Amino acid sequence: MPPYYIPTHIELRYRKHHVQTIPFTETLVVNGTTPVTGTWEEDFDAIQTYLEPPNPAYVFYRLDTKSASSDEYDWLFLAYVPDNAKVRDKMLYASTRATLTKGLGDARFKDSVYGTTEAEFTLDGYKKHKRHQAADAPLTARERELAEIKAIEAKESFNAQGTTVRRTYAAGVAFPLSEQALEAVRALAAPKGDRAHNFVQLRIEKEIVELTSAEQIETANLVAAVPGDAPRFTLHQVEYEVQGEVVEALGEWMGGVGGRRV
């Protein structure tokens, strides 16, 4: 048996149905209704009369609009669970909410609000909830990056003499690998005994990543193999010991700068 008996026979006729649990019997009962007297906005603050902290409550609130598919009124589902409610009550209300709305018919509810304070269930509180829903979604990391680039371009569009200067900033580019470079990199994934080389060095030439060298190099000689005066991508299978066992990891270096493991 579920933790609550869900009263699916409730007739949602009035402006408001207030449903509250009885902790000892763990059933949901209707303990108040309010007939429609004005518009949904005019009647909204009457919800406050049904909120009795620290007791949680569900409130069904009828709007003035109707569903296009069923010609029935739209409803709001309001879940009030104050912070100072008993932990057991919080858990029971949290575990029952989805079952209750499903039992009554999810399509009936145009919106739902979960709140912990009485102020969230005033008309002003509900309008804040709607404004938050309508707010623009936060930018992704890529969108923020592009916005920063545009801001830099706008800021530096004029030099000190007032002459217009156009500067382009590229956040990142992707060049294709030549067939030789691709084969050399793939070979690094082979087992040690089947691998012809453990060191691959690449360069960019005419917007293509080309293979510079592929050879077997000891870790002690790695620094000497990486040029300090030319940009290069360097991949090397590094061996090291962990708890008495020799393991490998692929390291990446750029130019003559110390590497970072990938």
Automatic annotation (TrEMBL):
Keywords: Actin-binding, Cytoplasm, Cytoskeleton, Repeat. One of its GO terms (biological process) is actin filament depolymerization. SMART domains: ADF. GO terms for cellular component: actin filament; cytoplasm. The keyword Cytoplasm applies. Gene3D superfamilies: Severin. Residues 1-131 form the ADF-H domain. It comes from the Eukaryota. One of its GO terms (molecular function) is actin monomer binding. It is found in: Cytoplasm, Cytoskeleton. It holds the Pfam family Cofilin_ADF. The keyword Repeat applies. Interacts with G-actin; ADP-actin form. PANTHER family: TWINFILIN. Belongs to the actin-binding proteins ADF family. Twinfilin subfamily. This is ADF-H domain-containing protein. It comes from Jimgerdemannia flammicorona.
